[in-house]
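Renewal narrative, Specific Aim 1. Our central claim is that a sequence can be written position by position from structural information alone. The example that follows is taken directly from our test logs and has not been curated for this report. It begins with the structure tokens describing the chain, in the order in which they were read.
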């Protein structure tokens, strides 16, 4: 009976540790999207969320962080009104020192219409995404983000 009780206690401690461990990569992913939001961009601590050799593969192109920041500047990201990402169906896999997360990302953006001054557009997207994170000095950071757009709807706001 004592052995069974000890086994149950150890099992719950292991599950609690596993949940905490799985929460750390998700916290990094959510922190990245928070730092990327127009309300916080450019975020002075983006390097807290990505590695020095970070790579994002989006729209059929590979971008380093500096390349992606230049792409955002070219898209006049600093004039956008709002950005929102809703992540769901996250699957977290852990290995020693690394994590992989696959998830569905639904995003909604409001920004000025580049072809019609004074008009705003609302863009709704759904992506299937995957990130690879590594643990650097006790902190998970995103090394690679793969994004495949599943749907995109753009509408003019009244």
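The sequence written for that structure reads:
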């Amino acid at each position: 009976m004592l052995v069974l009780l000890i086994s149950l206690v150890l099992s719950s401690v292991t599950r609690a540790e596993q949940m905490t461990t799985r929460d750390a990569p998700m916290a990094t992913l959510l922190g990245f999207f928070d730092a990327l939001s127009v309300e916080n961009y450019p975020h002075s601590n983006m390097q807290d969320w990505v590695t020095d050799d970070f790579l994002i593969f989006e729209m059929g192109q590979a971008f380093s962080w500096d390349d992606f920041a230049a792409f955002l500047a070219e898209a006049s990201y600093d004039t956008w009104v709002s950005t929102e990402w809703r992540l769901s169906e996250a699957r977290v896999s852990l290995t020693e020192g690394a994590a992989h997360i696959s998830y569905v990302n639904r995003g909604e953006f409001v920004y000025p219409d580049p072809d019609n001054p004074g008009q705003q557009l609302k863009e709704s997207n759904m992506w299937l995404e995957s990130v690879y994170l590594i643990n650097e000095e006790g902190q998970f950071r995103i090394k690679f983000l793969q994004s495949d757009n599943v749907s995109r709807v753009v509408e003019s706001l009244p």
